[in-house]
Design a protein that fits this description.
globular; about 5% strand; alpha/beta; DNA-binding
Length: about 450
DNA sequence: ATCGGCTCGCGCAA
DNA sequence: TGCGCGAAGCCGAT
């Protein structure tokens, strides 16, 4: 049974007689998905069929070919897994609100369930659709272990104010998932065969750019990465994760980003594993507190990608240093191609371009240098997010937004001592990186990446 | 190698 | 009202 605190009503209508529709968006998985489970429970209760719809809108934000490929592969697996449960899967392309609204009308849907996403444009689409249909529509937080609106009812000041709230409720929500079985009442209408080539070519993106191959998309692959992480990298995670020259990270962020795997599943398996407490705690802190804090920020601060979303002290210090002289200034293209004067920065950028994933520690250094080498903080946020959202497989999600805002605008951070350009925003530099890891070794790994083969 | 100061404000103890 | 301490640091003193 789905905890009803996970379910958030989006309009005041009541459920009508027709089938229950789950509009899948952020959570691209069949296993361990509370939104899908909620829809199925309601269908079985009311003795009506259940339908899953994916409304594919034209490419938005700064998405790229690598995102398109990951998404299509994920959805093909979803189609297979739904077929095994005899649940119909509709794949429709066009304007999101129009597709959902007309689908509800054409199939005489009695109730709509969505999954939760705090980001634009999906958020506004969801709100518009809820007003356009005339049946009950709700969203289910199938992403966060503690539902976003249950963890806190406001934008949290920092991790230390958010942590106790999550800790207090984690036991109630870190529960096991029921096994999903074939619905009581089967859908008897017509379900069009999905033309996957048409799906793949619907979103316009540049396929001359490289598509990283190291990670395999989808739920099965994600669970395999999880098993491998627990078996070979969880022990020692606390000390190795911040060294970019080591392979000490989980590699799970793209799978969590696309909803291929559930954070609850990950947390339960890590908790059950045989590994030192210090390593489990370090991983769970990132998986739960910091990841869910990112959704908290994006959900409660609607202008989350602008300087106006930052703390008052941060806005003040950014304004005071707006006209500080910048020693270096680069364009988006110079950043994208890794053409700065800083070999570590360039190597981090090329890691992101070639592998679709920049090491977590370097993401902070990388973003802070963009603040240092652009005319103003808002330009830095725009460029950092555009690069993040184009090249990172886990881009276009709340973690990327919050990470960039932490680095450039002090979101969830404290004030530090005054210096040029940064003001009181925490500063990071090359010397600090050299103190922590072998910078030269990291730089050497990406020194052979050729510009002509990449762009 | 290690320590304290930098600097702001939340949240809790009192 | 006072006080401890924080999303992963830097820097200079010892």
């Amino acid at each position: 049974m789905v905890d009803q605190r996970r379910v958030f009503p989006l309009n005041q209508y009541t459920a009508a007689a027709g089938p229950v529709l789950y509009v899948m968006a952020r959570e691209q998985r069949v296993k361990d998905n509370w939104a899908l489970i909620a829809a199925l429970e309601r269908a079985n209760e009311r003795k009506v069929p259940m339908i899953v719809l994916f409304a594919l809108a034209p490419m938005f934000n700064h998405g790229s070919a690598r995102h398109n490929d990951w998404m299509v592969a994920s959805l093909q697996e979803v189609a297979t897994d739904l077929a095994a449960l005899q649940i119909p899967f509709f794949m429709m392309m066009g304007d999101w609100v129009e597709v959902v609204t007309s689908f509800v009308r054409n199939h005489a849907v009695g109730e709509v369930v969505c999954d939760f996403n705090p980001l634009e444009p999906v958020r506004t689409w969801r709100e518009k659709a809820a007003q356009s249909v005339s049946v009950a529509m709700s969203m289910v937080d199938a992403r966060n272990i503690v539902p976003c609106w249950e963890a806190s009812d406001k934008a949290e000041f920092a991790a230390y104010t958010f942590r106790p709230r999550v800790t207090k409720k984690i036991k109630e929500f870190l529960t096991s998932y029921p096994t999903v079985s074939v619905p009581d009442v089967l859908f008897t209408g017509e379900v069009p065969t999905i033309d996957w080539e048409a799906v793949r070519s619907f979103r316009k993106c540049d396929y001359t750019e490289p598509v990283p191959h190291r990670l395999v998309p989808g739920s099965k692959a994600g669970l395999a990465v999880l098993a491998e992480f627990i078996a070979s990298r969880l022990e020692g995670y606390a000390t190795r994760r911040n060294d970019p020259t080591e392979f000490g990270v989980s590699d799970l962020s793209p799978y969590l980003r696309w909803g291929n795997i559930s954070a609850t599943t990950v947390a339960r398996e890590v908790e059950a594993a045989q590994a030192p407490r210090i390593d489990k705690d370090a991983f769970l802190e990132e998986l739960i507190v910091r990841r869910e804090l990112a959704d908290n920020y994006c959900y409660y601060v609607r202008n989350h990608a602008t300087v106006s979303g930052a703390h008052a002290w941060a806005q003040k210090t950014i304004a005071e240093h707006a006209s500080d002289a910048r020693q270096y200034s680069y364009t988006y293209e110079e950043f994208a191609h890794g053409k700065t004067h800083d070999d570590l920065w360039n190597a981090a950028q090329l890691q992101m371009v070639t592998e679709g994933k920049m090491h977590g520690f370097l993401r902070m250094y990388w973003a802070k240098k963009i603040l240092e080498w652009t005319p103003d903080a808002q330009t830095a946020i725009d460029i950092a997010l555009r690069l993040n959202d184009h090249y990172q497989l886990d881009g276009r999600d709340s973690n990327g937004v919050t990470g960039v805002m932490w680095s450039i605008a002090g979101v969830h951070d404290r004030a530090w001592n005054e210096r040029p350009i940064f003001g009181k925003i925490r500063y990071m530099n090359y010397a600090g990186c050299k103190r922590k890891f072998d910078v030269a070794l990291f730089v050497r790994r990406y020194s052979t990446v050729s510009d002509t083969t990449l762009f």
